[in-house]
């Protein structure tokens, strides 16, 4: 595919080469209120400041739509309601530094709860709404959450008897279970709201659980300082400016839905669209058109869904306002890029980053030519490299570990309860080793080549093989399980499980369905294996862990045992 020329004109990052030489993150720090006042809280910068310093209290911050519900929240209303929720938390004794799980579907209550907690310096533990009992137990348990916000529908999934630290359960909905707190009623009872708490730049903002190659999901600790990375990427990568309407389609249970779903755009006072519930290709178009979305951040899986809707669908909607489209999470294929050029009249800008990085790291920018197939160039201020397994830098053209020089502003600061895991990422200082393989060309463009560590990426969702294995091994039929990603045209990868059966069990389609459901109801639907294969034994390494190399060989058909 041909190189797509730079799009001069209305872009923020005017000269990549120059910015690359001269930009320092300190340059953007000056733009924050705390730079002069010394008082830090990301909620102040993203919400209160728009009201108190910029006269934007009446401006819409959030357009929400789900089924029958259609609501608008101004910055002023978000400030007011999140302060109310802070009052509710205070009433129940939830304090600065305490952890609060947020287990809600995309809804205004989710954003209000997040902001309300962060206002007080309470640390949010985002929980994707598809999580089931075991995934919830691991995350709420590990983080030691003292409270959780959920809905009456999701409430039954909480394994309360296994969560001794969990004292307060705030429930949004009609049927409030015994012992739980009625979120809406409490909000209506508030008469006085507490002042926003000032915290340090290094104070934890949220702990996001992300799957790794081994063990359980790890709690990545992000701090208020994440805002520095979010502000500059909102501008340079997403090209946000006054007058924009921004739609990031990711769920706030994942990093993209937090960092870019609301924090980054609100730092610039740009309104976001949130669409709840499930939706099809037609709903996508309708949403883009109805809210006159100008900047759209989504994933290849979503673009493919839109493609499957057919041309006549696109023709029925006025998408004229759409001026910038970005992608994340999985490889942006040529097929998708060609479709966008043809049908939407513009390229899609790929962005590479991870839960650990907290912000976009290697991206395509409007001011630079786009080489289809490349994830782009490092953000000015970010130093990337390809290194070998000893941490030595490799020259252009060589595939190796994609690494980032440690010390960027949105970097995760710890793995909760697990300093050893944190150190693993930095075993070749000064590099952060991403776990992705890539190479770089002579001009410095990077090309993603897949994960090196066995983490599975299915439709842009990160699945840890070890979590799925240990769930499968809880089933009486399974002696041992080995799980790996299998390449798939539509989903990037699918979850494939190799099963060693216990004596007395026979393989059948029914058992496969049962195991799939067992993972689905224990962990989450996206973690459930789409394919199974029975093996006499699962290969182990000398130290007794599943030998992922052999699983990969089995999948790719390179022989095996
Ligand atoms: C993958 C999502 C191809 C990668 C923000 C990374 C990508 C993992 C891209 C992180 C991209 C992210 N092209 N693959 N543009 N961006 N990935 O933590 O393997 O959910 O390591 O963060 O997604 O997934 P995570």
TrEMBL record:
UniProt EC number: 6.2.1.1
Annotated Gene Ontology cellular component terms: cytosol
Keyword Ligase: yes
InterPro entries: AMP-bd_C, AMP-bd_C_sf, AMP-dep_synth/lig_dom, ANL_N_sf
Domain AMP-binding enzyme C-terminal: 467-544
AMP-dependent synthetase/ligase domain span: 57-406
Any one Gene Ontology BP term: acetyl-CoA biosynthetic process
Keywords: Acetylation, ATP-binding, Ligase, Nucleotide-binding
GO MF entry, a single one: ATP binding
Pfam families reported for this sequence: AMP-binding, AMP-binding_C
Protein name stated in the entry: acetate--CoA ligase
């Amino acid at each position: 595919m041909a190189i797509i020329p730079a799009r001069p004109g209305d872009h923020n990052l005017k000269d990549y080469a120059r910015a690359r030489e001269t930009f320092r993150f300190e340059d953007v720090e000056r733009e924050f209120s705390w730079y002069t006042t010394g008082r830090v809280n990301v909620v102040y910068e993203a919400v209160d400041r728009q009201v108190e310093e910029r006269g934007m209290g009446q401006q819409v911050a959030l357009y929400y739509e789900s089924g029958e519900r259609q609501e608008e929240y101004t910055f002023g209303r978000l400030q007011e309601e999140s302060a109310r929720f802070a009052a509710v938390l205070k009433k129940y004794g939830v304090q600065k530094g305490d952890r609060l799980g947020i287990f809600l579907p995309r809804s205004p209550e989710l954003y209000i709860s997040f902001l309300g907690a962060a206002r007080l310096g309470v640390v949010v533990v985002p929980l994707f709404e598809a999580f089931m009992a075991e995934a919830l137990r691991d995350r709420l348990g590990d983080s030691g959450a003292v409270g959780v916000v959920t809905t009456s529908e999701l409430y039954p999934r909480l394994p309360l008897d296994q969560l001794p630290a969990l004292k307060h359960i705030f429930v949004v909905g009609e049927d409030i279970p015994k012992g739980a707190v009625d979120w809406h009623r409490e909000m209506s009872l508030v008469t006085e709201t507490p002042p926003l708490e000032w915290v340090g730049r290094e104070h934890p903002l949220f702990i996001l659980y992300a799957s790794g190659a081994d063990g359980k999901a790890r709690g990545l600790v992000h701090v208020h300082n994440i805002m520095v990375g979010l502000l500059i990427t909102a501008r340079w990568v997403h090209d946000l400016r006054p007058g924009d309407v921004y739609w990031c389609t990711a769920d706030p249970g994942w990093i993209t839905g937090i960092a870019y779903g609301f924090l980054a755009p609100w730092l610039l006072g740009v309104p976001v669209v949130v669409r709840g519930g499930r939706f099809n290709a037609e709903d996508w178009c309708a949403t883009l058109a109805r809210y006159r979305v100008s900047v759209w951040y989504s994933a290849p899986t979503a673009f493919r869904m839109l493609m499957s809707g057919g041309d006549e669908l696109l023709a029925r909607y006025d998408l004229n306002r759409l001026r910038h489209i970005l992608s994340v999470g999985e490889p942006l294929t040529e097929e998708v890029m060609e479709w966008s050029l043809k049908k939407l009249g513009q390229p899609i800008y790929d962005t590479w980053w991870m839960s650990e990085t907290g912000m976009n790291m290697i991206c395509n920018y409007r001011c630079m030519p786009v080489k289809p197939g490349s994830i782009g160039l490092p953000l000015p201020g970010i130093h990337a490299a390809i290194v070998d397994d000893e941490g030595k830098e490799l020259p252009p053209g060589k595939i190796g570990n994609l690494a980032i020089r440690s010390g960027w502003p949105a970097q995760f600061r710890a793995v909760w309860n697990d300093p050893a895991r944190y150190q693993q990422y930095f075993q070749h200082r000064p590099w952060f080793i991403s776990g992705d393989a890539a190479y770089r060309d002579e001009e410095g463009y990077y090309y993603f080549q897949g994960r090196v560590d066995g983490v599975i990426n299915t439709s842009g969702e990160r699945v840890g093989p070890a979590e799925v294995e240990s769930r499968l091994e809880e089933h009486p039929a399974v002696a041992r399980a080995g799980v790996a990603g299998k390449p798939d045209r539509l989903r990037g990868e699918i979850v494939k499980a190799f099963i060693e059966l216990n004596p007395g069990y026979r393989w059948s389609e029914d058992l496969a369905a049962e195991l799939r459901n067992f993972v689905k109801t224990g962990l989450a639907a996206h973690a459930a294996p789409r394919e199974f294969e029975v093996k006499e034994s699962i290969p182990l390494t000398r130290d007794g862990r599943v030998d992922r190399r052999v699983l990969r060989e089995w999948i790719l058909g390179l022989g095996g045992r």
